Prior knowledge:
This protein has 13 helices and 13 strands.
Amino acid sequence: MKILIVNASDILGGAARAAYRLHKSLLSGGVDSRMLVQSKSSDDFTVLGPDSKLQKVLGGVRPTLDNIPTRFYKKKTKTLFSPSWLPFGGVVNKINKINPDIVHLHWVCGGMMKIEHIAKIKAPIVWSLHDMWAFTNGYHYDETYDLCKNGCQSELNFLLGNRVFKRKQKTYAKKDDMTIVGLSNWLNECSKNSELLKDKKHINLPNPINTNVFKPFDKKKARELWDLPYDKKLILFGAMDAASDPRKGFKELSGALHELENNNIELIVFGSDEPVKPLNFGFKIHYLGVLSDDVSLVSLFSAADVMVVPSIQENLSNAIMESLSCSTPVVGFDVGGNSDMIDHKGNGYLAKPFDVVDLKRGIEWVLSNAEYDRVCLSAREKVLTKFDSTLVVRKYMDLYESILNKDKF
């Protein structure tokens, strides 16, 4: 069985890391897997990137070029919109030349593929949805936070968006052998009920995680490595461009932290550097910048007492899964795929959506819990039984085999 994983990049970004983990899990399971990317950062020979310096340069500018049509709309918002119109990428030719048994698409925007190219892929397609783009008119997420029920109302939506929608409609109609993977129950249901993908086969399968890598590390040693205090309760928050992306929930987190009355706490922020105007919650904040390697993440998750993921929208958060796997409880809103991983008052806390006071209660519930050790054990156990790579990859292999055998699932 020859599988080709296709993603815009190999290790940079949440979708890339999830796709790469699946690729590595397939290899460990004895599957002939390769990964095809537009931008390659690793030195992994099983990852196929640009063939020349020119292609590497073009791969770097294609995201900007693909975004050109959106610049004609003055009222566009910060929500990412991908028209996916750029021709001459050569990706489809590479895919068909490799001639895999199954092509497993992940995040293929950023100028990597023109929408119409999807229908030109000869092999059956499996498509893991890391956001909503596959079944929207071009937006990656809905700003009303309820795209399953409501559409986006904007000039860009009615003009450029309508054209993108029709292009997808025509393309998907030409590709019958396409199976959609909803990584979370929430996004799977959204896709199943969408106008564009409702006629496709759907299955809910999560991302895998290597629990031999993401595992508990001695808390005292972890804090020593990061020069963090031993005698404080440490709250961890991580997100790229958190302050500028309202979906990340930094506004809600700030409100909850202002409500906290515990004087024995400090905040750790990774993924962002210290802002020009320092924040003041009444306690110290440690800014660690962008972290890109698993060893750093494992030690950081282990150093914290609680991870807070206050996202307004979330599919299947890598951060939540990684934190739980390191036995660190997680607090987040009961939205999207969070409930797939967080068991309310079991291994963490699911706050009422966008309720700052309840988010604060969740943080306090974890930090003051008399059975904190049990909560930590439950966090690790959840990942071991539901998301461990050896278990999840077997399900993907079963999916591939059923498609090749044309079985129903």
